[in-house]
Structure formats: C-alpha cells, structure tokens
Predict the structure.
Amino acid sequence: MQLINRKNFIEIVCICFTLISLGKVIIEKIEGYKDPYYAENFITIFLICLIATFVLSLQYYLQNVPITIVILGQYIILVGIIMFVLWIVGHFQTLASTAYRDLFFSFTIPYLIGAIIYYVTIFFQTRRANKILDEIKKEGEKRDDHEKGRS
C-alpha cells in the first residue's frame, strides 16, 4: 500500500470496498445468514470506506503530530462520524437494539486491520526512503572528498 493521495484515492477506496464486501459475503455464506438490508449495507460499506480513506489520507498533513495521537485521533473521529450518522438515521428508521454495538464492531475490526497494514507499510516505505537518502549522502560525501583530494 502506498501513501494515500489525490491520484490513488478512488483506487484505494475501491480496493478497500471490494475486500470488505468480499469478507462480508464470505462470512454471511459461511454462517448461512440472509441480510434483509443487503443493498443498504453495501452502500453503507462504500460510504464508510470513502470516509475512512479520506481520514487516513489526512495523515500526510499531520506529520508533525506524534503518530499515536494521529492514529487514535483518526479512529475516534471516524467512530464519532459513524455513530453520529447512525443516530441521525435512527430518527428516520427503526434501528435494532444492538445497532450501535454492531456497527462499532463491524467498523472497528476491518478498520484496525486496514490501518495497521497502511501504517506498517508507510513505516517501511519511509525507512527504505531514509536508507536511500543516507546512501546518496554518503556517495556525495565520498565524491566531495575525492574532488578535494584532486585540488
């Protein structure tokens, strides 16, 4: 996975949506569960993927903030948005008594998996980029030393 930017935003949303949707379908098939709100749930999954990807993409702008605060802040913001939207929907439709809990777990588990993959990948990409920069600096220093020796 790469740093989320304008060029790959929709691509990453679609990949996340596809993976989560496949997971949903496979789990429902294994359990033998028939979802009466099938279409609504897929739309919800897409919207949550869209919002979650957007919030994760903000990490680039928060590079000066400690990473643990960024990760926790992003998660809290996303859970807050999701619960707020569910609260609004609850004014127009009857929700199950476990709707908040169900949505919390349905969001948290895939989000944690995706966020861990994203941040670990970014960590290793940053580490690799820093290593390449160090090698370039060392080569530059060697070149400078070599040129000083000629003068």
